[in-house]
Design goal:
Layout lengths: L12 E5 L2 H4 L9 E2 L7 H14 L7 E4 L4 H11 L9 H39 L5 E5 L2 E4 H10 L13 H23 L10 H12 L2 H13 L2 H5 L3 E8 L2 H12 L4 H8 L10 E5 L1 H5 L3 H7 L10 E4 L7 E11 L13 H9 L5 E2 L5 E3 L4 E3 L5
Helix pairs in contact: 2-4, 5-6, 6-7, 6-14, 8-14, 10-11
Length: 384
């Protein structure tokens, strides 16, 4: 006998019929399809999904499931999940709806958690700002108070700041960062023998710092940089160079071996070099390595040479070569040490000063953020 068509038995129920009823009117019961309502609340959906699973039992073609829901919402549920309009909802659809609702609830909980964290952060920031004598940051030899930062902002507001007397968290931290940096520079200079009074107003501290950076401290920094890395002086010294410049690696190796065997480089270059790249005798001239060759392989190879030495063959893509490859062997003829000028690759003051400043310990009020020694900045608190 054919089974009865799916129905809703009463105002508080949903009905389930077999899948085969929809495919063949006289077929036996081979599957279960369940109707239910998807409510807005996650708890309601999860509970209903459980009832659907129980209702799809192996004890008959039609199972009545009491949902405990109102008739009208029941109808809304069926309309939402009944995608083909036959009045029947499958267990898979019900479970998928429940899973979707649970995922939305999880995302909503995460959003609520983030909002609460931001609110707590803002509340802590506002509470700290109300205490002018609270310490915003401390460092070797001094500290910056909340009131110091607020007064600095009011005295020198940045362009487009909406309300200097009530700065945002980001605006406050930005100004605090500048004030710490200035004082750390003063402390570092003072320790290195260039006096700075960090107890003065910011404008006066800055004037003292700038006077040192633009004056004798630069020479001090140059010498310190050379002591730490002697190769820096080579970068500031003109290198007088000759070259073999040919179109293949084999030609470059052969020309280099001839010079190493005793032939004069200018004679070999005159016979093998591509036109227009060097003088007729292979000379290129005298210049700083980075000015002549940029920061590429040729400049680095040149810095490793002593006078009279040659590099291994090096390849550069070049339209000046018929093969598209320019193979070069450089020879360092001499170093023009009389023309060494460190100012050509400086200034060094900022680098040396930053290196010293980054070693200092700085403590920032947790409600404001934390100090990042790598970039000498206060970073805002990280939210979840």
């Amino acid at each position: 006998m054919p089974t009865a068509p799916p129905k809703i038995p009463d105002a508080h129920a949903a009905a389930v019929s077999s899948n085969d009823d929809r495919a063949s009117a006289g077929a036996g019961s081979a599957g279960r399809l369940c109707r239910r309502r998807v409510g807005a609340a996650v708890a309601g959906i999860a509970a209903l999904a459980a009832l659907v699973a129980l209702g799809c039992a192996e004890d008959g073609d039609v199972v009545t499931i009491h949902t405990g829901l109102e008739p009208e919402p029941d109808a809304e549920l069926i309309a939402e999940l009944d995608t083909d309009g036959d009045g029947v909802v499958s267990r898979e659809a019900a479970e998928a709806a429940a899973a979707e609702a649970e995922e939305e609830a999880r995302l909503e909980a995460e959003r609520a958690e983030r909002d609460a964290a931001r609110a707590a952060q803002e509340a802590a920031y506002q509470e700290l700002l109300s205490d002018a004598v609270a310490v915003a940051a401390s460092f070797p030899g001094g500290q910056v108070l909340i009131g110091d930062v607020l007064a600095n902002i009011v005295d020198s507001p940045v362009t487009l700041m909406d309300d200097p007397e009530n700065p945002t968290h980001e605006e406050f931290v930005s100004r605090l960062t500048s004030m710490i940096q200035l004082r750390l520079a003063g402390v570092a200079l003072d320790e290195l023998g260039f006096p700075v009074d960090i107890g003065l107003a910011d404008a006066e501290i800055n004037a003292q710092v700038q006077a040192h950076l633009e004056g004798p401290f630069e020479e001090f920094a140059q010498q310190r940089a050379i002591e730490e890395d002697p190769s820096i002086e080579r970068l500031a010294t003109p290198h007088c160079v000759s070259a073999l410049a040919v179109s293949s690696e084999a030609d470059a190796v052969a020309a280099s071996e001839r010079v190493q065997a005793g032939e004069a480089l200018d004679d070999v270059a005159a016979g093998v070099n591509l036109p227009g790249l060097t003088g007729a005798d292979g000379t290129i001239g005298c210049a700083l390595p980075l000015d002549r060759f940029g920061g590429g392989e040729l400049a680095l190879a040149l810095l490793d040479l002593e006078s009279g030495e040659m590099t291994a063959p090096l390849m550069l893509p070049s339209s000046a070569s018929p093969t598209g490859e320019l193979w070069v062997v450089l020879r360092l003829d001499s170093l023009d040490t009389d023309a060494t000028d460190l100012s050509l690759i400086g200034p060094f003051a900022g680098h040396v000063l930053t290196e010293v400043m980054s070693a200092y310990e700085v403590n920032v009020a947790p409600a404001l953020g934390e100090w990042n020694a790598g970039n000498l900045r206060v970073s805002l608190p990280i939210l979840p």
